[in-house]
Structure prediction request, 485 residues.
Amino acid sequence: MSTEKDAIQVTTIVDRSRLALQDDFLRGAVRFTTERLRGRKAASSEELGNWEAWRERGRQIRSHTIAHLDYYLRQFVDNVQAHGGHVYFAANAEEAAQTIVKIVEKKQAKLAVKSKSMVSEEIHINKHLQERGIEVVETDLGEYIIQLAGEMPSHIIIPAIHKTRSQIKDLFTAAGATNLTTDTKDLTAFARRALRDKFLRADVGMTGCNFAIAESGSVVLFTNEGNGRMVSTLPKTHIVTMGMERILPTFADLEVMANLLPRSATGQKLTTYMSVITGPRRAEEADGPDELHIVILDNGRSSQLGDDEFQEVLHCIRCGACLNVCPVYRHIGGHAYGSVYPGPIGAVLTPLLNQGEAYQDLPYASSLCGACYEACPVKIPLHDMLVALRRRNVEQGRTKWAERMAFQGYRMVFAKAGRYKRVMRLARKAQKPLLRQGYVESTMGPLMGWTESRHAPALAKSSFRERFQSMQQAWRRGEDGGDQV
Ligand code: SF4
Prediction:
């Protein structure tokens, strides 16, 4: 079975995918869970009715918000401050992490509890805090499991999608559990006991933010386990980390998203807990933190604003539906992407947020089938963006020499009909040594990767045009076969 440590040793999506494909359990678990999520989503969207109209409304809300992001961000910040919250803008991951570290150190905190947040993974906040001797505990069950395993989430919504109950039992036993069985109730009871103590002792609670409402300065959290409420109310200090695109103008817009997000993510009609947090605890309130700090992260997002090809990536509401339908994700799982955001959204977002070489191969992890677009509740054309990213790689000379030569040759051959015919005649002869039962199979060279997992049919003995011409000639002579044309 492959591990995240193995995945880190290899550097390309191809190598990481190869490793993942050897892991039968991983493939089975991902297929089983994504199929269940797809089925539930289909049922709950049908139950709502007019799903396409809801999607279109979702797209319009996100498009309007992102087109006026500066205005709504300002409104949100003004309202947070009016309610006694503190707001910080971070240009990049390092700045966001340092801002949070400063807040935590100022409070002389020893223990921080967290609810699930992809942005906190993006800025690697756990590592930054742990390096300073601050204990950080993930409290979402899936995140707790992968924290114990020392791994990254492998799905946006279900971080431990790749773990068996028996593996979880081993992880919990190593964390202090005794006499555990693999029964789900038994496992969750241990996690509940272990986390309860952490909630009660924590100095700082850290959450992400599903949506930030500009008109009220509220942070909205969607959770299913109730841990978000514990994290955001029990500790004296609450720190929210959010991407700058999380904004929604009004609560009326939230109503649309409250239908689209849970149904697309897990097929639920509504999320189990929807917490709306507006400022820290007021004098007359019984619970809540004394301080609320909101860190708003850019980290490459503002570079997409005004870009006709990529601005829509900021519409994403992180539901994970595109992962569940992607034929590539369903085979290789999340760790093969080597980035915080896996699946089709990760294959677009990660290279956009990280301009270096490291993730520029991710847009090739797609069959371009468009299933991600069909699944997306806010209609983001991810497949078009994947093509645009590949084109950008070509324009920036990031493709391999052999690939460039191959496509130049392809263009030359297809530019002239005569040239094409001659090359096809040659190819028919050249394929002979590679033929196995009517299919081309290459055990070496650039064709190998293609034919190792696909059937590449052999070129026909004669082309359609050649057959058509010979049939026409036969027909003119009145021979058999003329009427087959
Ligand atoms: S791109 Fe669409 S389907 Fe994928 S996570 Fe974002 S909102 Fe969901």
